[in-house]
């Protein structure tokens, strides 16, 4: 290796070192930049989600108040027992009676037709009807003494057509509504 070659090599090595340093600096800058963007984005997103959380919380509180007001209004018509409802806002704490719904408040209506009495009613009478005999009524389109007896007189002849068109079904529906309105069911 002569002196010229040596100098040339040294220069080349220096150049390479310089290039590497520049590359390293550029990479560091890029990484720092990306990191700061990430931090900014994270803090921004956190702020947004906090704001959303607050909004959701206030909605829940409002809903809770509306619910309690409804409960309070309802309970003034009911004879339920009293419980204390705790709320997030102490000043809104109120003693309300929960609505008490029992089986006696339920009206169960079964729409049927004379052709299906024998094939469809026995299974109902053998099963869930046994749990709600007083709450269940059958709306049909004929007089059926057999099922009238088996349902304790809960077969109602609507005198409507036995066909399955809208008019006939609405006719039965109206009798169902009238019967429901004549009860004290909820
Ligand atoms: C069906 O007709 C009979 C006999 O006219 C009547 O007694 C009964 O009340 C009628 N049923 C309805 C739901 O109107």
How would you describe this protein?
The longest helix is centred in the N-terminal third of the chain and has 73 residues, at 3-75. Helices cover 56% and strands 10% of the residues. Strands 3-4-5 form a three-stranded parallel beta sheet, covered by helices on one side. With 186 residues, it is mainly alpha-helical. The radius of gyration is 39 Å and the shape is rod-shaped. The model is unreliable at 74-87 (pLDDT under 50). The chain binds 2-acetamido-2-deoxy-beta-D-glucopyranose (NAG). The site of 2-acetamido-2-deoxy-beta-D-glucopyranose has 4 residues, from loops.
Can you tag this structure with a few keywords?
mainly alpha, binds 2-acetamido-2-deoxy-beta-D-glucopyranose, 186 residues, 56% helix, three-stranded parallel sheet
Brief overview, please?
The chain has four helices and five strands.
Strand order of the main beta sheet, please?
A: 3-4-5
How many strand segments?
5
Report the average pLDDT across residues. Answer: 80
What global shape is seen? rod-shaped
Which segments are poorly predicted (pLDDT under 50) over 5 or more consecutive residues? 74-87
Question: With helices defined by DSSP (H or I, 4 residues minimum), what is the helix count?
Answer: 4
What is the fold's blueprint, element by element?
Elements lengths: L2 H73 L7 E3 L8 E3 L11 E4 L5 H10 L9 E5 L4 H6 L4 E3 L8 H16 L5
Parallel strand pairs: 3-4, 4-5
Antiparallel strand pairs: 1-2
This protein binds 2-acetamido-2-deoxy-beta-D-glucopyranose.
2-acetamido-2-deoxy-beta-D-glucopyranose binds next to loops.
């Amino acid at each position: 290796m002569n002196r010229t070659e040596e100098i040339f090599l040294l220069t080349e090595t220096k150049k390479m070192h310089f290039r590497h340093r520049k590359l390293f600096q550029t990479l560091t800058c890029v990484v720092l930049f990306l990191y700061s963007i990430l931090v900014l984005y994270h803090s921004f997103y956190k702020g947004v989600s906090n704001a959303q959380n607050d909004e959701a919380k206030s909605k829940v509180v409002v809903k809770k108040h509306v619910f309690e007001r409804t409960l309070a209004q309802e309970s003034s018509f009911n004879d339920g027992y009293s419980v204390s409802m705790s709320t997030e806002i102490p000043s809104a704490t109120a003693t309300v009676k929960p609505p008490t719904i029992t089986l006696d408040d339920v009206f169960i209506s079964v729409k049927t037709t004379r052709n299906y009495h024998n094939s469809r009613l026995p299974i109902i009478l053998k099963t869930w009807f046994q749990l709600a005999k007083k709450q269940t009524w059958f709306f049909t389109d004929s007089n059926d003494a057999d099922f009238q007896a088996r349902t304790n007189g809960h077969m109602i002849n609507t005198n409507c057509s036995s066909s399955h068109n809208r008019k006939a079904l609405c006719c039965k529906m109206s009798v169902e509504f009238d019967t429901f309105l004549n009860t004290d069911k909820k």
